[in-house]
Amino acid sequence: MNLTQITLKPAVYIIGAGPGDPELLTIKAYKILIQADVILYADSLVPKQILEDVRSDAELVATGSKTLEQIIPLAIERVRQGKSVVRLHSGDLTLYSAIAEQMQAFTEADIPFELIPGISAFQAAAAKLSTELTIPELVQTIILTRVSGEASAVPETEELASLAAHKASLCLYLAARHIEKAQAQLLEHYPADTPVAVCYRVGWQDEQIWVVPLSKMAEVTRENNLIRTTLYLISPALQQAVTTRSRLYHPEHNHLFRPGKKSELIINGQN
User: Fold this and answer.
1) Mean pLDDT across the stretch 94-123?
2) Whether the Cβ atoms of residue 130 and residue 209 lie closer than 8 Å to each other
3) Hey, what CATH topology would domain 12-116 get?
């Protein structure tokens, strides 16, 4: 692995900063971040600790109070001045990051850009809980979703109640302000005692996680005045006792890299 500095070209580097813990930044994200000329960061979602090692002369622009019509022209102007620009988002770029319209704007302006993925809150939360979200014979599907809000609506075909019917490991984002409705929809399909991890500001210094029955999800949210930066993990995988195991490492399970006698003959060209 090459841990030396890299040469940044004039471009926009759209980086997923992860859930908040600076140590969860990818190596590539960190290397770009500490060398960039300009950093446009979502200050309402990215903790200041993420920026501790940036250049002392880097231009830092907080974007929490800005609109896209203010952010995009600034990024374009700096790139055209020959500067490297970081657009720093929280979590991973593939989830609720609103980067599609940003990429479209950069493409139309003929501004080069690169995406650097990050760790999502659901991954960090599962790690904090020492939990695998896909337990053999119990649950093998992970659903990442949200509820409809003022910023954007969820398509009718993706309503929470219909997704809950799968009884999968469900990671619910952006739902704290609508938690009573969300809980009612989930209870249409999940048992009331299904474990739920209520995860507040995962990876931040004031992180808090509660594991409660689904029937208590809304109550815990209200009692702790959680209105934003909260993730809900609803999953039977959060049960304390796991009685099944994957066959991946089972001595009776053979595959290409651990063949049994029949597989060995095929690999050696015999049949």
Assistant:
1) 96
2) no
3) Cobalt-precorrin-4 Transmethylase; domain 1 (3.40.1010)
pLDDT at 196: 98
Task: Provide φ and ψ at 76, rounded to 5°.
Answer: -60, -45
Domain boundaries 121-238, corresponding CATH code: 3.30.950.10
The pLDDT tens digits of the residues spanning 24-49 come to 999 999 999 999 999 999 998 999 99
Delimit the domains of the chain by residue range: 12-116, 121-238
For residue 144, give the nearest of 102, 214, 94, 219 by alpha carbon.
Answer: 94
Asked if residues 267 and 259 have their Cβ atoms less than 8 Å apart, the reply is yes
CA distances from 173 to 12, 32, 97, 147, 264 (A): 27, 28, 12, 7, 47
Burial class (CB in 10 A: 0-12, 13-18, 19+), 259: middle
Q: What is the pTM of this model?
A: 0.85
